[in-house]
UniProtKB/TrEMBL annotation:
It comes from Cyanobacterium aponinum (strain PCC 10605). This is DUF488 domain-containing protein. InterPro entries: DUF488 (IPR007438), FERM_2 (IPR035963). Coiled coil: none annotated. Transmembrane segments: none annotated.
Amino acid sequence: MDLFTIGFTQTSAEEFFESLKKNHIKTLIDVRLNNSSQLAGYAKKNDLKYFLKALCDIHYVHILDLAPTKEMLDQFKKQKNMSWIEYEQSYLNLIDNRKIEKKLSPELFENGCLLCSEKKPHHCHRRVLAEYLNEKWGDIRIKHL
């Protein structure tokens, strides 16, 4: 299975949507906790859903079970009380406790793309999630756009 990840920060709408089209994405899986912020620009939930369908014929789904908790995000980003390693482990524990690999169908992720705001995947939960799913389901080729 091919599973992609993408962040929208510091990326123009043209680059974002062309990258999705070029890679034949079927479903964009939004893994953000907050997807309705005015700061999200073209990636704001309802706008994004419209653009994906109209421009790329891509299905949009927002799955809150794949997002970190507000408390985790606040500790990591705002309070700086948590290192990346601690955040990553906390997020892994969270999705493991949620048993997402049992709740969700691998078919949803086939040629799917995990969306978050971070430009690069290195310190983003979308990378951790993709690697977790590969560990649980196996045979996933992960590509970061």
